[in-house]
Amino acid sequence: MKKLISRRNFLAAMGTMAAAGVLTACGGSSSGTASSAAASSTAASAAESWGDVKLTMWGAEEDQTMLREMADAFIEQNADKGNVTIEIGVQSESSAKDTVLADPESAADVFAFADDQLNELVNAGALQEVLLNPDDVKSRNLPGSVGAATMNDKLYAYPMTADNGYFLYYDASVLSAEDVQSMDTMLEKAAAAGKKFMMSVNDAWYIYSFYAGAGLVATLADDGINTVCNWNEAPGADVTQAILDIAVNPGFKSGADADIVSAIKDGSCCAAISGTWNASTAEEAWGEATPPPSCRLHPERRAGPDGLLLRLQAGSVNPHSANVGVAMMLADFITNEDNQIKRFNDRKLGPSNINANSTEAVQSAPAIAALAEQSSYATLQRVGANYWSSAASLGEILASGDTQGKTTQQLMDDAVAGITAPVAQ
């Protein structure tokens, strides 16, 4: 039997890009309000009269068939408005920001991204503010997902999923619910069985949870660009030493997501920190999934993935799209209630839509239930651009076990210096 411990949430953001300078209003003043109203009217008019329209939509490789079906349904539903062609392309949500910012004008009209990329995309002018029916979008989705798609009180994305947290999967034939309450016990039992507990320690997203679980902070500065981080304060060095101890334990192996999937399938892994996207893999290998109540890791050395991250996915519009209004309509369509239910049925992705999320099928899904059980421990990860490479470099060092002759305090001072370095403008 497979058991689940909730650890991370994910926001899916679909990006529809429209000319940011034209359609993004200044906030706070009466002229800004008028500008916003005018932009909304322009977008609405463009959406009402299409003519010949060609759009490009990006999504994850495993979503291509589903997105094609959604696109075809959108075309059929709006056949009376104009002739529309929608091309589907592959782009992982996790790296969407890098691809979009490399050449915003060539990016897709509609694309998916993780919410922790929101601030950089908005600051670069690469996301269109939601101007068509924003109040409807807000009211139909979970508050947390709306908050994750919002910056400076403006909605920049259409919430799409609310299930992408990471949590602990484990094989109950090897480990008990009591075993996984302690990192040391879990590692001891895994090693005794000739198996591994696995996690992507060298990933900036995952390693964040060790320090968050110890009460330390890495978050966006007030300027919305740089990062504030205190990981080099107590007990940061102790947490770092604990990660080093875990990394060299015979019951542990650091690995990328693909490595974890392979290890679950071949039987060499008996527990892993992963997310809902691997629920089917774990269930096939370890049997029926049943989430334990309020189960979290409490390792004796205060270091463990105990800080649940809330990440979500959403849809938004490219401000450089030649067809902003239609792009907004497409982003709205693929994230509506019916299509969020389709995502769940086709891909087992947890909806952010309130009605879809409340269905019996969704609420009874083990991975989603586990995330819901642990959501009170969750935080949204909001960091500046320099966090990612610096935190990943720290993770690489700790996963390798080679500290290059530095003390744990020196490692933390170096990491924090990189994380908090001013972002080049």
Describe what you observe in this structure:
The protein has 425 residues and is of the alpha/beta class. It is built from 19 helices and 17 strands. It has helices spanning 20-23, 30-48, 64-77, 96-102, 118-123, 134-140, 143-148, 183-192, 204-213, 236-247, 257-266, 279-286, 324-334, 337-347, 354-357, 360-363, 366-374, 385-400, 408-420, and strands spanning 2-5, 8-17, 51-59, 82-90, 110-114, 150-151, 154-155, 158-162, 166-171, 196-199, 218-220, 227-229, 252-254, 269-275, 289-290, 309-317, 379-380. The strands form five sheets. The protein has a six-stranded mixed sheet with strand order 13-10-14-9-1-15, with helices on both faces. Helix 2 (30-48) crosses helix 13, helix 9 packs across helix 18 and helix 10 (236-247) crosses helix 19. The longest helix is centred in the N-terminal third of the chain and has 19 residues, at 30-48. The chain is globular, with a radius of gyration of 22 Å. The N and C termini lie far apart (51 Å).
